[in-house]
């Protein structure tokens, strides 16, 4: 935008704010505008009362986070004098920089420095920026700004999702990567800020399982195998991640209902009000109605819902929490509960009393293990395969319900993770003692070469089955 036109537009904004009594009627306002085009006066207003200006700014920002171009990250309060959201492009490896964003500190969002004040102002006053992108002088989340060279470089100290992804890509491109030995490693799916996306599909091709995780990659409720075609293909884990977020924020009882794969169920009820949710987009639609009028909602299905929204486990848990809240309001500590419910409203696989823990089915009818260890995934999966008439060789820990660390398949042996997914190389039975399951898991979560080399210590080439790298369709 030409300087004369820009000054005219800024002057118009300042005069409009003056008419609204948001700026003093100073005699020298025209002189200030002529000196620096009114930028200093606008900066003073933004420092003292930024919200006043935003009422007069018409935002031209992406309609949704997903509409930002690839390589950019949507951020609120970035464009148009800090009043509107925009797509931000951070500096990449080798590019000039003025600072680094600590991936562990979300507050860094508020300190983005724009590449050019004049360009930012012109874009703000003259319409939306090109492609709705604002340039930042800060390095991207997985990079550090070198003080010596003032350029972005890899951050080897932080092991976020993007770092693991980068190390995986480097390993695959190297000559040291042998598919028949290293096929257990999988590439994580990361968000632009270095966190793990809700859905992660792990394991070798043909043995994969998709699971829901939190931003740090820790396991949440929700999983699907490829043979569960509909659940597997539609899986997005939006519900499981939202339940985790609300519990993480301190809510004691969350009544959102998730499906087996971590998606939202079509009908949701909270605090006595019900609404419909699109499982694919994770967005509500239609009206919100009292729970007594839930049958008027288009997503209501009496066969699936039954006579009431809350299911047996969460109804019991929710009732106990209401009693505890009431007693706490009166200054009395309520009784603790060890009840564990899954986000679909059924009983969690591991239930404990004052004496011990056991693994159960989702109805808490059949005890699957006696007693239970820290996890019951193997016991639950064994039941799942039986109900689906699928014969799978799997070994559960005796009296724990968790997967045994070592599993066998014919004449081969291998390590598995807590979900029973192969997490190490497949080797001949006579090399079982050479396997390092802990190192194999660390190879995936850290990407360190030393951990990957120790997945099967001193294993010769003949220890591994020989097969070609599969061709992706």
- What global shape is seen? flat
Number of helices: 14
Distance between the termini: 49 Å
Indicate the radius of gyration in whole angstroms: 28 Å
Number of strand elements: 17
Low-confidence stretches: 1-7, 25-33, 102-130
Q: Strands of the largest sheet, in order across it?
A: 1-2-3
Structural class of the helices, strands and pairings? Answer: alpha+beta
Q: How is the biggest beta sheet arranged?
A: 3 strands, mixed
Structural domain count: 5
Residue-averaged pLDDT: 79
The portion of residues forming beta strands comes to 15-25%
The share of residues in helices is 25-40%
Oligomer: single chain
List the helices and strands and how they pair.
Elements: H1 3-19, H2 29-36, H3 39-48, H4 50-54, E1 73-79, E2 84-91, H5 117-126, E3 133-139, E4 143-145, E5 152-154, H6 161-173, H7 179-182, E6 199-202, E7 209-213, E8 219-224, H8 229-234, H9 238-248, E9 267-270, E10 273-278, E11 283-290, H10 302-305, H11 312-329, E12 350-352, E13 357-360, E14 367-369, H12 377-387, E15 406-409, E16 412-415, E17 427-428, H13 437-446, H14 449-453
